[in-house]
Amino acid sequence: MSRSTTATAGETARRVIDNVSEVIVGNREEIEHLLVALLGQGHVLLEDVPGVGKTMLARSVATSVECEFKRVQFTPDLLPADITGVNVFDQADQTFEFRPGPVFGNVVLGDEINRAPPKTQAALLEAMEERQVTADGTTRELPEPFFVVATQNSVERDRTYELPAAELDRFAMKLSLGYPDPDDETEILGRIVGEHPIESLEPVVTTEELVAAQTATADVTVSEAVRDYVTRLAGYSRQNAQLGVSPRGSVALLRAAQGRAVLDDRDYVVPDDVQREIAPVFTHRIRVDCGEGTPADVVKAALSIVPVER
To answer: How many CA atoms lie within 13 A of 41 on its CB side?
Structure first.
């Protein structure tokens, strides 16, 4: 892969980041992480308190790319077929016709995903991992690109369902926006006077450009030393936590590192790329026993103890 291809992919990602920043004030780092996940063909879970811009961030990314955007509002009475689609009998033709659900989009927003029961959440498992949907014995491919951004309510635990570990593991990253600082909040208030910025946001990247950027990201060179580094970081988490990072998590970190390299106009991965992306990729996959710190502590310890080279 040529450097010009990498530079083009990086420019594509930066156009989206700059466009999203027209709506989302601050949180530049989180926006970059989200685009890194998109370049690496991963999915993102946004967890935070209500009202900090999780849904707006997802909408801004979807609007920035000229592709099909679908939104699913997760509720306790939502059924799996409401997401994947259903066969409807056509009386005129005496045949069944499949009506695709909202999962058949390029960018799919699952709003407050933890408000739906596990059976409904499970409807996304096949789609997120294999990029296909099986309904009534028939398997259908999902469009390309396919990117899921789910938001999660972190406050009302008594009115929500915990996401199973298998579902969490399918999210390449878990991000949190947090409350804005005073200057950023004042800027937010100034921007929403009159028309909201999201209403005037225009696409800056075509579907073809995004797919090309994802292809270029997949071709970024990863040396054996970097692959070994990722393996040892994952191994440390397994040895020092109740539940460590899965091989899927290692793959997600490697792809995120490729995305970070593209964002920095490089056609090869360096250890710094791994270190910059490890927290949002690894932390939500780790579980620790009570009194043994937090998953974030395990990740920090891994970075300080595991050497870059043998």
So the answer is: 20
Peptide bond between residue 145 and the one before it cis (omega within 30 degrees of 0): yes
Do 229 and 109 lie in a common domain? Answer: no
Cα 101 to Cα 276: distance, rounded to the nearest angstrom: 36
Which residue type, as a one-letter code, is found at position 141?
E
Structure tokens at 50: 């209500």
The CATH number of residue 286's host domain is: 1.10.8.80
Provide the number of structural domains found in the chain.
Answer: 2
* Final residue belonging to a domain, choices 162, 191, 219: 219
Domain identity same for 249 and 207: no
Based on the fold, state whether residues 189 and 203 are members of the same structural domain: yes
DSSP 8-class letter at 181: P
For residue 215, give every residue at least 6 positions away whose Cβ sits within 8 Å of its Cβ, in sequence order, or none.
Answer: none
51 and 155, same domain (yes or no): yes
Return d(Cα 288, Cα 57) in angstroms, integer: 30
Examine the fold and report which residue of 159, 191, 219 is the final residue of a domain before the chain moves on: 219
Q: Are 198 and 276 in contact (CB under 8 A)?
A: no
186 residue type, one letter:
T
From first to last of its 310 residues, the chain has per-residue pLDDT tens of 555 688 899 999 999 999 998 888 878 899 999 999 999 999 999 887 777 778 888 888 888 998 888 999 998 888 888 899 888 877 777 777 888 889 998 999 988 888 888 888 888 888 888 899 887 778 889 999 999 999 887 776 667 888 888 888 999 999 988 787 888 778 877 777 767 778 888 999 999 999 999 999 999 999 999 999 999 999 999 999 899 999 999 999 999 999 999 999 999 999 999 999 999 999 999 998 876 789 999 999 999 999 987 5
Residues 212 and 230 in one domain: no
Global pTM reads 0.90
Is the four-CA dihedral 223, 228, 233, 238 of positive or negative sign? Answer: positive
